[in-house]
Amino acid sequence: QPEQDLAGRRVVVTAGGTREPLDPVRFLGNRSSGKQGAAIAEAAALRGAEVTLIAANLETDAPSGCRVVPVSTAAELRDATLAEAAGADLVVMAAAVADYRPAAVSEQKIKKGAGDAGLSLELVRNPDILAELGRAPHEGTVLVGFAAETEADDDRLLELGREKRRAKGADFLVVNRVGWHEGFASDENLVIVIGPDDGIVTRAHGTKVSVAHRILDVVV
Ligand code: C5P
């Protein structure tokens, strides 16, 4: 039984990857499995928190001990997150949220045109949920964001993470290297956590469960 250092705290975690529908059978998505977010939710529950997991298309089992709110699109994730975040002690935005969605969703399955060479899709920007939380008054709520980056260079990763933390008004920013074979679907993760004064508060490399506990250690 881990130390109950989150007892009496209300924690909201978003996890997974949003899907933006194009038509009744297709969507734009990403390869986030939701494993890191689910591990954070479960770790927080084990440490005594009352946890709500806002789950976007998880490709992992929902963790035990948490209330799960299933969502699919960025718009649904936004509605659920804004509702749950009010008055929470900690909000961890681990979900990979689509930056863009199709400008229109076709009522019917999009058909190939006879002899056409290609198809262009028009996309519009989705609202940035973390930035919205960061801008709004949130006394007493610690905000943790993630940055999934494909940069190989450590200094560049840190620079991106620091910029992102400030731009979104998060207290902590977890920088996470992702690629074709690392990060999203794997059971292991390598992260750098940037703190409120832009310093590195921890680096963690290991299973997503151990990384979850390290992130919670610094937040606590
Ligand atoms: O800008 P970028 O997508 O790299 O930022 C990642 C962080 O911002 C994550 O914490 C993610 O959950 C959050 N985010 C968001 N709303 C978006 C896009 C990202 O809350 N539309």
From TrEMBL:
Q: Which GO terms describe its molecular function?
A: FMN binding; metal ion binding; phosphopantothenate--cysteine ligase activity; phosphopantothenoylcysteine decarboxylase activity
Q: Which cofactor does it need?
A: Mg(2+); FMN
Catalyzes what? N-[(R)-4-phosphopantothenoyl]-L-cysteine + H(+) = (R)-4'-phosphopantetheine + CO2; (R)-4'-phosphopantothenate + L-cysteine + CTP = N-[(R)-4-phosphopantothenoyl]-L-cysteine + CMP + diphosphate + H(+)
Gene Ontology terms describing biological process: coenzyme A biosynthetic process; pantothenate catabolic process
The reply on keyword Ligase is yes
Q: Which GO terms describe its cellular component?
A: phosphopantothenoylcysteine decarboxylase complex
Q: In which pathway does it act?
A: Cofactor biosynthesis; coenzyme A biosynthesis; CoA from (R)-pantothenate: step 3/5; Cofactor biosynthesis; coenzyme A biosynthesis; CoA from (R)-pantothenate: step 2/5
The note on the cofactor says: Binds 1 FMN per subunit.
**What is the name listed in the Swiss-Prot or TrEMBL entry for this protein?**
Coenzyme A biosynthesis bifunctional protein CoaBC
* Species the sequence originates in: Agromyces archimandritae
* Taxonomic lineage from the root: Bacteria, Bacillati, Actinomycetota, Actinomycetes, Micrococcales
- Covered residues, full protein: 180 to 399 of 399
